[in-house]
Amino acid sequence: MAKTKIVILGAGYAGLRTLKQVQKEHLDAEITIVNKNEYHYEATYLHEVASGANPPEKISFPIMSVVDQKQTNFIQDTVVMVNKDEKTVELAKNGTIEFDYLVFALGFESESFGITGVDEFALPMVDIPTAVKVREHMHAQFAKYNETKDETLLSIVVCGAGFTSIEYLGELTQQMPKLVKEYNLPADKISITCIEAMPTLLPMFVEKLSTYGIQKLKDRGVKFLVGTPIKEVTPEAVVYQENDELKEVKAKTIVWTTGVKGSSLVGKSGFEERRGRVMVAEDLTAPGYPTIFIIGDCSAVMDKTCDRPFPTTAQIALKQADNVAKNLAAKIKNQPIVPFTFKSQGSVCSIGNNEAIGEVMGHNLKGYPASMMKKVIENKSLMTTGGMKVMFEKGRFDLYH
Ligand SMILES: Cc1cc2nc3c(=O)[nH]c(=O)nc-3n(C[C@H](O)[C@H](O)[C@H](O)COP(=O)(O)OP(=O)(O)OC[C@H]3O[C@@H](n4cnc5c(N)ncnc54)[C@H](O)[C@@H]3O)c2cc1C
Known about the structure:
Radius of gyration: 22 Å
Domain FAD/NAD(P)-binding: 5-321
Shape: globular
Number of helices: 10
Family: Belongs to the NADH dehydrogenase family.
Bound molecules: flavin-adenine dinucleotide
Pfam families: Pyr_redox_2
CATH class of the largest domain: Alpha Beta
InterPro entries: FAD/NAD-bd_sf, FAD/NAD-binding_dom, NADH-Q_oxidoreductase
Distance between the termini: 59 Å
Structural class: alpha/beta
Largest sheet: 6 strands, mixed
Number of strands: 28
GO molecular function, one term: NAD(P)H dehydrogenase (quinone) activity
């Protein structure tokens, strides 16, 4: 009898952890994982690459270090389409592959919310190439300043004040003294502005923590515009609304971190979705498709305590992956599935390398202990997916004060 074909799309948090766990099941199956790059990257650390705090190699490792070649075939390619009824996946270079079970874990994309000029003039930060582009673009503006003395070259606008924006601002402000020296810039002329539509900053944390975090950034020179929705991005400015008036901040580096949506391939492949996310069944399959699991940022799981979907995070993506591996084995062996349940362990938002704010298992943390906790969590995740070697090579061991 032919072996069961399991295909995993995406080697991010969700896809690679699924592979790691499903290989442990030693199923009578042929496993294929498809990813556009030969490396996995820790998306939660993209802001470090964008700010220049760390090179791309620090936050990535080869997918092959998780692949057990006796069970799994890795195809480096771009997924173009999933034909859910035919049970096939179209790839850009390798034609069409068939599956019996599919794990759709293609992650997130930048969300422009239809605002004019975002796609043309703002810089998203959603993968390694875009994070590198943010860093290179800012460096290029700084290099030009000494020729032209145009002060908009020293102005950076970060659009949105969610988790990603705050973590980026934390690293960027820590890198700034080095950049000022490197490019011989007038420090007092550097301008960093963060523009947020919502009236409150970091509402996911208690006020004491969010105030602490925001004050740290203000002390490092960040100016916050709050309750001021962005209306347009132009080549050299961000236009926002304050009360009934349109105003602008001039800048040559405009970083777009207002939020993300799930992969556009979700909709393109005909799944019922909202912002690239499918409301999945209790076994994490797409409604009506019991052999197609959709996990990570392409999925939505209801939090019954507040009747809203859980925020998409690496934390839930990893838990979903563990559950999918078990349920894949259960389905193949005709055993009962284990419904997915999730309880957030909390979250930690870094404000540079040695500062953070967070809530972990009911405990509020700030400053150095919070930053240490974030590194411990990351190391544990690296260990579980990548193994000991990956954790020692890529982990965070600068736990000093
Ligand atoms: C700066 C930043 C900080 C964050 N901080 C936190 C945090 O502290 N805690 C937390 O829990 N979450 C955090 N998040 C969110 C977290 O990173 C995401 O929720 C998580 O990455 C989702 O995992 P995923 O596996 O669904 O997708 P991803 O990690 O995006 O992986 C998707 C994979 O699919 C590949 N892929 C995409 N499209 C294709 C295609 N067409 N063909 C082939 N391959 C493709 C990609 O290359 C990638 O390898 C942060 C995100 C950012 C950007």
